[in-house]
Write a structure and sequence with these properties.
alpha+beta
Length: 167
């Protein structure tokens, strides 16, 4: 189990109640994500984190709820294969407007590239061979400094205007 050092859920201030519909990645969201990564109890981890990218093919669903459903379905497959796995994720648009997930995967010593590509391809159901070849990416992390750099890089991205359908 991965824990957050020195904190109980009741001590985390989430901004005062039920959150509304997400309309972007605010400064507060960035701050929370960096804090979340920084608060991981490294000694409780079985191995270094792995960075994963999940991308949609040339055609993708227009409904953001469907994107989240795909992520949730894929996460269930991940948990069946790696029961101790947990992840921190961020969704952002690619330049072409396609949804694109970045994940920091914890408590997984190794992810098979074959399993990753096949599982995401099946969940999305694209049928596009190019997506099968290029819809995922895995990066191994060698240090916590590298992990924090990765998190900072992806949280620092400011998207001035969300593509159509992202509102």
């Amino acid at each position: 189990m991965v824990s957050v050092k020195g904190r109980k859920p009741t001590h985390i201030k989430a901004g005062g109640g039920v959150r509304g519909e997400v309309k972007g990645f605010s400064k507060n969201a960035r701050r929370r994500l960096i804090r979340k990564v920084g608060s991981i109890d490294r000694e409780a981890l079985q191995c270094m984190p792995i960075f994963i990218t999940l991308t949609y093919p040339g055609e993708w669903p227009s409904d953001p709820k469907q994107w989240k459903k795909h992520l949730d379905t894929w996460a269930k497959r991940l948990k069946r294969r790696y029961p101790n796995a947990c992840a921190i994720w961020k969704l952002e648009p690619q330049k072409r407007g396609a949804p694109h997930y970045h994940l920091i995967l914890l408590n997984v010593p190794h992810v098979s590239k074959y399993w990753l590509t096949e599982s995401w391809y099946e969940v999305v159901g694209s049928g596009d061979e190019r997506h099968l070849r290029a819809g995922t990416n895995i990066q191994l992390i060698r240090s916590w400094r590298g992990c924090m750099s990765y998190a900072a890089k992806y949280t620092a991205k400011v998207i001035e205007e969300l593509p159509e359908g992202w509102e």
